[in-house]
Amino acid sequence: MGRTLQNTMINLGLQNACDEAIYQLGLDMEELEEIEEDAGLGNGGLGRLAACFLDSMATLGLAAYGYGIRYEYGIFNQKIRDGWQVEEADDWLRHGNPWEKARPEYMLPVHFYGRVEQSAAGTKWVDTQVVLALPYDTPVPGYMNNTVNTMRLWSARAPNDFNLRDFNVGDYIQAVLDRNLAENISRVLYPNDNFFEGKELRLKQEYFVVAATLQDIIRRFKASKFGSTESVRTVFDSFPDQVAIQLNDTHPAMAIPELMRIFVDIEKLPWNKAWDITKRTFAYTNHTVLPEALERWPVDLVEKLLPRHLQIIYEINQRHLDRIASLFPNDVDRLRRMSLIEEGGTKRINMAHLCIVGSHAVNGVAKIHSEIVKTQVFKDFAALEPEKFQNKTNGITPRRWLLLCNPGLAELIAEKIGEDYVRDLSQLTKLHEFVDDDLFIREVAKVKQENKVKFALYLEKEYKVKINPSSMFDVHVKRIHEYKRQLMNCLHVITMYNRIRRDPAKLFVPRTVIIGGKAAPGYHMAKMIIKLINAVAQVVNNDPVVGSKLKVIFLENYRVSLAEKVIPATDLSEQISTAGTEASGTGNMKFMLNGALTIGTMDGANVEMAEEAGEENMFIFGMRVEDVTELDREGYNAQEYYDRLPELKQAIDQIRSGFFSPEEPDLFKDVVNMLFHHDRFKVFADYDAYVKCQEKVSELYLNSKAWTKMVIKNIAAAGKFSSDRTIKEYARDIWHVEPSDLKIPPPNEPRDAGEDKTPNGTAA
Length: 764
Fold this sequence. Notes:
Layout: H1 5-11, H2 15-24, H3 29-33, H4 45-59, E1 65-69, E2 77-81, E3 84-88, E4 101-102, E5 108-112, E6 115-119, E7 122-126, E8 129-141, E9 148-157, H5 172-177, H6 179-183, H7 200-223, E10 229-230, E11 233-234, H8 239-242, E12 245-248, H9 255-266, H10 271-281, E13 282-285, E14 296-298, H11 299-305, H12 307-327, H13 332-338, E15 341-342, E16 348-350, H14 351-357, E17 362-364, H15 367-377, H16 379-384, E18 389-391, H17 398-404, H18 407-417, H19 438-463, E19 472-477, H20 486-502, E20 511-516, H21 524-541, E21 550-555, H22 560-566, E22 572-575, H23 587-593, E23 597-600, H24 606-613, E24 619-620, H25 625-634, H26 638-644, H27 646-657, H28 669-677, H29 683-702, H30 704-716, H31 723-735
Parallel strand pairs: 1-9, 12-13, 13-17, 17-18, 19-20, 19-22, 20-21, 22-23, 23-24
Antiparallel strand pairs: 2-3, 4-8, 5-8, 6-7, 8-9, 10-11, 14-16, 15-16
Helix pairs in contact: 1-17, 4-31, 9-10, 9-12, 11-12, 19-30, 20-21, 20-27, 20-29, 26-27
């Protein structure tokens, strides 16, 4: 979520009033804002997407709740020591959190372990261990519409009789200390992005948020006029018409068997009725196609932790496979491919298959990704129910990612096209009229230059590094992962360095290359990539021949509040994943909206950005998905590229020989070995096209006016990538609710004053 103060002031229309009041107290608002800790309760794009979605849902007047875990420790703080990443605990609650309100009156029990008892009365899950879920509510204000939604985060608490009700007579002290075991569930965020680690505590976290949330939803449903009770038994027929639950990846997939357990075991609904309601309630968003990221929980772990849920999953699977067997008789391989249970070695539950079978809608997060989902990853399921599969291209909130982080640009745009674009970003197309307006061109360039100077000052103050604000700011910020190919950027940096040294007198467009992002603590290769970037920076930044022509900065502890500083100052945005690996990306959209040009592959939302802005207004290079597939078919041979490209050979030889690590010459042998022998992401295959494309970038940067014209064309084409547009599509195509851009009356006005503004029948 990042910081909340400035976002709240903007959405409430109070920023100027607050700035003025604080100024009159002799204080500086910006200084105050810097004191707030980031709430870093997610890993990367998926978590930040949820935050943008909450902002858009409130702005569109949807009655929506965001549910999650109130981690005591969020994503780790990254320190760089001697070029290596070192993790520190993110004690973000140390000074308290003024935005949250604990709601102990809504505390709920969550059960674990135990056993299943069959009887005439039905199935019972008994002898469980209980953990209490304590909700904390954070307000989510819409933009200038007097709507405030709720983000409800659950914290784990041990019940007061924890470890004391059983034969624990002797050790009272130990029993109280053991309360930590239960409360550890919400202690810390698992720091993996795009990687599945099948740990018991992680499964506990996933079930914990799901069980608490579903009880909360059902309590709210029963309290509403819809959950009409007939002879104490609730009628759940209208449940899917009143409740829509969106599964953000497979992490909350246990919600499907949990809702079935509630309906069948507790509410005593017949299976088929329960299953129909469940399917109509859930929809699933897939966020990645990388096989190592797909959740596959061992059956024996689920059996130990959630025995009843395993039975329900088996029953879902049996009925699912019976249906397929009747449609495709004797096709055993299809049954194996489509089963929720993977046999062979340890039996595992494929959570994505569970989500697809248990949802009425499945979507990818960019056109190209949704196609890959349909035609490759889940093609058997798409063949069975093509109407279930959709696309919902991701977006970003223009409130945080333009108004808040780039007020200079936001104001410049408002002067030209009015202020309405903030709620309707498609209006940015009106900027096309000003592409040839010399004054506007100069003003856009001036705002960018001011942002660059400001960021350069920040870097000097915080990290004691001096950079040249007139150089091109070439920025690559995102989680460190092989598929995102920070290594390819690094090879380009080495290539530029070698070119400067080969011919120091030759004209060179000065660059500051900024690379930042966190590596999962257990991801060895990602940590080696960080060390390599820092080792290269050490050599490049201290070579007198290079001077101020080329500087390399590794941006420590990349997070939302740092993104808000670096993105508005960026000239060139690096979006260089291997085609077919980045589901969407959202950083790409933030840079586009903030006046950077993009160098990128035809991957994720880059494809749609090129569609909107015109491919000639982006720096597109490298293999397309078809080329990657073709190269896989014939076999990727890295050596071939090394032999053919002298500059690539030189760069690799320098890394291998210890040119960048003289004190430990074979420090990077693992990296070089990977690049030659098991590089799934084909860095060498795109290297040449990348370097040539970068030459075009430098050439255009020399012509400031032509560069800025292209920038304006990009901003004018960024309207599609508002999360408001994304949420409208979810609302209409999946949730079946109507967004309303009507302002509800403020709480100080009498209620009837706004009666005529309220449309009929939109209560949801």
